[in-house]
Amino acid sequence: MKARLKSFGYALNGIREVIKSEMNMRIHLAASFLVIIMGLIFSINWIEWIFIIICIALVLSAEIANTVVEKYLDAMHPEFNPKVGLIKDMAAAAVLILAMSSFIIGMIIFLPKIIDLLT
Predict the structure, then answer these.
(1) Any idea which positions bind a divalent metal cation (predicted)?
(2) Which of 54, 72, 74, 91 could cross-link with 66 by S-S, CB 3.0 to 4.6 Å?
(3) How far apart are CA 26 and CA 114, in angstroms?
């Protein structure tokens, strides 16, 4: 049991480090917070909440994975290497695709509610 608690602590430390060191993670967290507030304001249904939670979890996890790739490659190849740069760009592209897809899902959920509110 003690080992399980320690591993949980290590994971929390990893999250704390990514938040501290990565501006994009802070941006994703701020967007997530805003979406959760909007979900509460617009009283979205449980299916919409499932999609929102999945999107948030995927984007935040992808950002962490991207950070791992970047830090690992920086440690293993501190000198400039165009192939390393390309790998890092691809990892960032995965986050971008998830973030854009999540934005579209958010628009599908929230745009009709916003339009109803304004009309």
Answers:
(1) 22, 70
(2) 91
(3) 26
**Residues annotated within a binding site:** 10, 22, 63, 70, 88-89
- Chain segment 39-98, per-residue pLDDT in tens: 999 999 999 999 999 999 999 999 999 999 999 999 999 999 999 999 999 999 999 999
Residues flagged as binding site for a divalent metal cation: 22, 70
Give the number of domains in the chain: 1
What phi and psi, each to the nearest 5 degrees, are found at residue 114? -70, -40
Q: Binding site residues for ATP, as ranges?
A: 10, 22, 70, 88-89
User: Which residues are annotated as catalytic?
Assistant: 63
Q: How many CB atoms lie within 10 A of CB 14?
A: 13
Virtual CA dihedral for 40, 45, 51, 55, nearest 10 degrees?
Answer: 0
User: Can you tell me whether residue 78 is helix, strand or coil?
Assistant: coil
CB neighbour list of residue 38: distance below 8 Å, 6 or more residues apart:
110
13 lies in which domain range?
Answer: 2-118
The reported pLDDT for the residue numbered 63 is 98
